[in-house]
Amino acid sequence: MILDFKGVNFAYGNHKILDQSDFSMAEGEFAYLVGKSGCGKSTFLQLCYFNLLPQSGEIKICGFSAKDASQKSIPQLRQKLGVVFQDFKLLSDRTVFENLSYILEINGYPRKKIRNRVEAVLSDLGLLHLKNAFPKTLSGGEQQRTAIGRAIVNEPLLVIADEPTGNLDPATSEEIISIFESINRKGTAILLATHNYDIIDTKGRIYKLEDGKIGRVKIKN
Questions:
Q1: Which residues contact 157 (CB under 8 A, 6 or more apart)?
Q2: CATH topology of domain 1-80+157-221
Q3: Per-domain residue ranges for the chain?
Q4: Residue of 128, 115, 172, 179 lying closest to 152 (CA atoms)
Q5: Each residue's pLDDT tens digit, 139-192
Q6: Partner of 177 at 20 to 30 A CA spacing, among 117, 158, 170, 197?
Q7: Do the Cβ atoms of 169 and 144 come closer than 8 Å?
């Protein structure tokens, strides 16, 4: 399993987010996490990349355990993950190219490999002509594609996406989901949280977070 929760508990005060919760994903899987706003989807995702740690229970992801999480191991884990946010979180003072390249720079990639890899990703995402543009000049869809590029440039095992279409119109949202599906077909696992049932492709596994539990569901389109 690329991601495995066993008996995980997490709460904010008396508000339980996860209650003895189990969840697992296999390598290369595409999974949707649904649930009403405020149910804890974002908290769950933060637990996945150890931005938060469980109060009890065990989380294993990409060979790392939350029980052994440390200042050294967490950065090592995040080299194997990509994270995409609803509000993009792009660096406003860096170009599209630089928003991707710095991920490889901090991991010690040689300059030529950085250029080749970043340009290949931007080409795949239809952004190569915008490589010298700054985020504020881009449309919402272009900003989100840049954010996706940043998430995949390091060739992660798993991409975690938190409401990646929340700020986009329906047509652009459909385009973004197609990009995630394309990434998944190349072997990268995808965990995508959303409250928008309209974007869900039922070919992926669908899980619902409700009352502290995560269970698989079927949604009829």
A1: 2, 27, 62, 80, 81, 188, 189
A2: Rossmann fold (3.40.50)
A3: 1-80+157-221, 91-155
A4: 179
A5: 999 999 999 999 999 999 999 999 999 989 999 999 999 999 999 999 999 999
A6: 117
A7: no
